[in-house]
Amino acid sequence: MPCLVVVPATPLLAQGVSGGADALPGLRRTVRDVLSGELAVSRGGVAVLATGPTARAGRLRPSLAAVGVADAFVPLMSAFGPRGEDWDGIAAPGASVALLALGDAGLDVATCPVDVVEVPGEPATAAVLAATARIRATFDDQAVTSTAGGLLVVADQPAPGVDAVLERLLASGRWTHDVLDVHQRHEHLPGSYSVTVHRLVT
Length: 202
Hints:
- This protein has helices at 25-41, 93-104, 125-138, 141-145, 160-170, and strands spanning 3-6, 46-51, 56-58, 60-61, 89-90, 115-119, 151-154, 175-183, 192-200.
- It is α/β, with parallel strands linked by helices.
- It has one domain (3-200).
- The strands form 2 sheets. Strands 3-6-2-7-1-9-8 form a 7-stranded mixed β-sheet, sandwiched between helices. Strands 4-5 form a two-stranded parallel ribbon.
- A hairpin with an 8-residue loop joins strand 8 and strand 9 (192-200).
- The model is unreliable at 141-147 (pLDDT under 50).
């Protein structure tokens, strides 16, 4: 896996959630720029890691209904098409934010299915091992050991389950770590958000 990108899991990252008063345009631009750049050079699969109510994986459709936002208010949701038999289920909010960010960055979700891996907040060791193996399997064998592989977008960090999987992934090989801090002035939100990019060197 040559690149892991950790994004804030706030639903406000998705355009339309905060209505006409866009709350986090700067953060959205930063995430879009990072992901679009990585997608342009990626030669492997694309996956998402986030917290979910249970351990599961598959082609999950994004939805922010669980946090009170109907699909109609999120323009990017239309790119994923209707709910139906083509999906293995509905993604939890964190994974949904990551999926929408990938769509915003230009990923054609119709031709490039994203493997979504969700782990509980406090998972059993077996769930962590299974999630780690699933993510590694998303990319080809070359991607695991070289700089020619895929992209993993991580949401919901810090969270014990996500942290445990991420720790195992980063334990193999040597990685660089770049942190982009995005400051904002909305009085009811944190003063800054971070986007972290881990790239495999060897």
